[in-house]
């Protein structure tokens, strides 16, 4: 009988041990499962408190770095077991980060410039494919982001997401228009000026030292005291008009040079004519005497300027009556969307935690001070479509004049075009050939067609395709 009791006890103990093992395995499995969607130490996995450090590199002025510090503080408050080391590289960012990567001293997450460092590193396989995170994250997806701020090495391979999109507009001094009795640029895209209307207005607002306008007989183009417009010769500005005219830097199939095609040539020539035919915009030589947008408009050196929306910050601080309208349209209204990106290095030991940090950096609440100041715009789409969120960064602010919502907010959501640096492979090497040729166009020494045709064969050798086409 005693033997039977012992056997029964042993049997019960064995069953208990088996049950404990099963429960332990289930518990472990559940813990591992939760770690695929949230960092350790989050509310979903309070049992694991592994101390983690993430390294992050950024560039920018102290004012631009401040939002990152705010985002990091909010992130560390949410995940107290994670420490973020912020490395601010104030100068020679690309060179220093490239050296760090070559020396195996790699951050977990880094700010990247699409036109220079990002894609060369991506082509070396240095970055995580963020599509993996976007596919399984319930908080953020391509549909929740402003269009054209996701950068991909190729379709399906996302290498970076922009924390703050930027677009372009036609900024102007309201007082100049009032004094001249001329209607200002429209803010609603449906009422946008044609190119000819834009040129005629710019003529009336270009004034020489004798008080004659570019529309008057006897106007002296060598003695201009006020230009009607300042149209920069930076590709970020003239790309708006190439796209508006149906052109591109590269063909739709990615196989041939695009800037010598009729649509692009016409847009480039029109900008050159502003300087060399109508004399309503300063040439590159004359631009050396034109101050920054805020000062140029305030001091009436120019009446209008085509610039990025980030100009709002300086304009607001200058304390004069400025406003913004939509850019003139050739065939279709378009704005080029430009922004830096954040990327996660594949070498990180904590990819999920780095992803959560990226989400914190994208959150407009973290950068609200820079957004309301006028330097940045939010990356999340609902900050444009939700009236309460939109009001937080567009109403009762010096940086957001009356035309801003229509001319900037509405246009970036519906008429945006990705920056060419995001989809044209080998863009920098192509532009190293294009820019010297365009200098001759801006100076009136060659027509746009002549200049672009003269380099077409040389550029063709640098054509490597498009990133938005699956090869």
Q: Stretches where pLDDT falls below 50 for ≥5 residues?
A: 1-37, 40-47
Evaluate the radius of gyration.
28 Å
**Alpha plus pi helix count:** 19
Main beta sheet: 5 strands, mixed
Q: In terms of structural class, how would the helical and strand content be classed?
A: alpha/beta
Strand order of the largest sheet: 7-8-9-6-10
Shape field: globular
In total, how many beta strands? 13
In round numbers, the mean pLDDT is 90
Share of helical residues: 40-55%
Distance between the termini: 79 Å
User: What portion of residues belong to β-strands?
Assistant: 5-15%
Could you explain the architecture of this structure?
With 471 residues, the chain is an alpha/beta fold. The protein contains 19 helices and 13 strands. The strands form 4 sheets. Strands 7-8-9-6-10 form a 5-stranded mixed sheet. Strands 2-1-3-12 form a 4-stranded mixed sheet. It has a two-stranded antiparallel sheet with strand order 4-5. Helix 2 packs across helix 13. It starts with a helix and ends in an 11-residue tail after the last helix.
